[in-house]
Backbone:
């Protein structure tokens, strides 16, 4: 029996943070893990954890509330981030993504993330849509006013029930999408 835990970042225990860090460092060795000083960055994130019956983590991921601006209109979206399965190809990732989708739908939100090409099929099979050649349109302006482009060649994964936002983006190929924080 699998157990799904959904928690806001501000309620995470030190023990969970330690486990999270271990998983993140293994999966994305270049990525900084979450230390207590950095915890502030994560307090509004929604963490999803799939456990087995012995409370061992099988897969985890998070959603981060992000503000986007497109054609002068603001959008509150959920940024999909840090999706990891401890043991791969056993369906644990799919269970996790099903929970994310359920949450996204219940909040009537648009969800957007970035992924390496090799993982796009996994997201497709988990109910998300994939858009290639879009990542460079996401622009972040840092507090000093410097524009930081996403230079990693990734696919954009997204989910939205009404499919209006992405349609709008795709029908204005020259317009940039401004993001309020660096890619999450
Ligand atoms: C990407 C990742 C989370 C997938 O998790 P997983 O538990 O192995 O995936 P699942 O077993 O639930 O697979 C679900 C489906 O996607 C397919 N799939 C999984 N990974 C795939 C991949 N890399 N390429 C193509 N298909 C893939 C599975 O075959 C399965 O297909 P099916 O439904 O037809 O049987 C996992 O490979 C992982 O942790 N990778 C390292 C971290 C990472 O890169 N995360 C993504 C950051 S963008």
Residues:
């Amino acid at each position: 029996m699998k157990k799904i835990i959904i928690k806001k970042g501000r309620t995470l225990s030190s023990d969970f943070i330690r486990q999270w860090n271990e998983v993140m460092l293994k999966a994305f060795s270049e990525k900084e893990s979450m230390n207590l000083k950095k915890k502030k960055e994560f307090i509004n994130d929604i963490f999803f954890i799939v456990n087995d019956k012995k409370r061992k983590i099988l897969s985890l991921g998070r959603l981060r509330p992000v503000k986007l601006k497109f054609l002068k209109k603001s959008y509150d979206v959920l940024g999909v981030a840090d999706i990891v399965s401890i043991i791969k190809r056993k369906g644990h990732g799919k269970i996790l993504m099903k929970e994310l989708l359920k949450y996204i739908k219940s909040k009537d939100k648009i969800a957007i993330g970035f992924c390496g090409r090799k993982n796009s099929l996994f997201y497709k099979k988990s109910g998300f849509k994939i858009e290639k050649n879009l990542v460079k349109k996401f622009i972040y302006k840092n507090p000093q006013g410097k524009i930081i482009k996403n230079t990693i060649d990734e696919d954009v994964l997204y989910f939205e029930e009404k499919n209006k936002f992405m349609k709008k983006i795709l029908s204005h190929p020259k317009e940039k999408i401004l993001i309020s924080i660096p890619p999450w």
Q: What stands out?
A: The chain has a mean pLDDT of 92. Residues 92-106 form the longest helix (15 residues). Residues 3-179 form a domain with the Aminopeptidase fold (CATH 3.40.630.30).
